[in-house]
Amino acid sequence: MRSGTALLLLLVAAGPAQDQAITLSLALADTLRVEISLSGRGMIAPGRLQLLRSTSRLDGEPYTIALPVTVRTFDKQAPGRLNLTDTMVAHNVRYHYRVRLLGPGGRLRWSEPDSVDIPDAELGRITGSSLLIDKLNYFLEVRYGGLTRKRYPVALGRDPRRRKLHQDNATTPEGIYRIADEQPRARYHKAFDLDYPNLADRTRYQAWRGAGGKGAGIGGEIQVHGQGIDGNWTHGCIALRNEDMDELFEHPRVGKGMPVYIVGTELDRGDIQSILDYRPRVEIIRIQRRLAALGLYEGKLDGEVGRGMRRGLAKFQRENGLPVTAQLDRRTSQLLADD
């Protein structure tokens, strides 16, 4: 099931293209800062340019190695030189970059690949820390005091962008978790077991079943484990290199009970912060009253975010075309405040 690896895709918005070659050059400006320069003859036409980044080599025509991880859109034509910055990289890894240019008649041209080595960093003291897994940028970030301490490159499953809803051996969950257990000897080197499914996951799953979803169970056994990052090969777990798992296991502050935040296509860092934010009881009651007025909540106005309120939030999100998170994520909170 090895279907891909970490990629960065930058799109420039639609328009006519010129049949031209693109030259790519890279420079490491800081530990986690890559400066990217693209140059070509005349104007770089919008809608025709893709810049791919990977932890694997990008030789040939790499169509099938993975889905794109990040998309940035530019709505104007670029001159003959375009300068970009990539700060969403991990430590101690070589990244490979390559440009694809779509010419007239669908003709494809590729730049020569280029690569850059990101240096290592010390993990150091991390009392009261957390782990953040960024599915779109393919790294696990150790955070301490709200700041990045170190990043490790990761691999995911064969459907890396979609948020896990039920058992499928392909997708990775998003949300707020904890390390439930440690396995110093595991099938894939070493492993941290995550407490998936949590209450939010169960509420989402029940909402899906209530809307007619059939078949698969909710699934489980989501881990952060070793065995390498050579392609998106897991069943929805997060894979690291064995030496990186060794480093995490050896640190006395990394282990059971540690918070793990997973962000991706449905939940971003702002959503996680919104869910974690303290809300006074009076605010929760106001939201419960609003959901009740919409016919989405029948419980007590008790100021507690319990099962009934989570079900009401899931219904509200579905009716308003939002990702069903069953939590007070950023967009849901804003929409309820506007109401």
From TrEMBL:
**CDD domains the record matches:** YkuD_like (cd16913)
Q: Which Pfam families match?
A: PG_binding_1, YkuD
- Describe the location of the L,D-TPase catalytic domain by residue ranges: 129-263
Q: Which InterPro entries match?
A: LD_TPept_cat_dom, Peptidoglycan-bd-like, PGBD-like_sf, PGBDSf, Transpep_catalytic_dom
- State which pathway it belongs to: Cell wall biogenesis; peptidoglycan biosynthesis
Q: Which GO terms describe its biological process?
A: cell wall organization; peptidoglycan biosynthetic process; regulation of cell shape
Q: Name one GO molecular function term.
A: transferase activity
List the catalytic residues.
225 (proton donor/acceptor), 237 (nucleophile)
Q: What is the lineage of its organism?
A: Bacteria, Bacteria division WOR-3
Which organism does this record belong to? candidate division WOR-3 bacterium
Which protein, by its recorded name, is this?
A: L,D-TPase catalytic domain-containing protein
Instruction: Give the UniProt keywords, A-Z.
Output: Cell shape, Cell wall biogenesis/degradation, Peptidoglycan synthesis, Signal, Transferase
Q: This protein's superkingdom?
A: Bacteria
Q: Which residues form the signal peptide?
A: 1-19
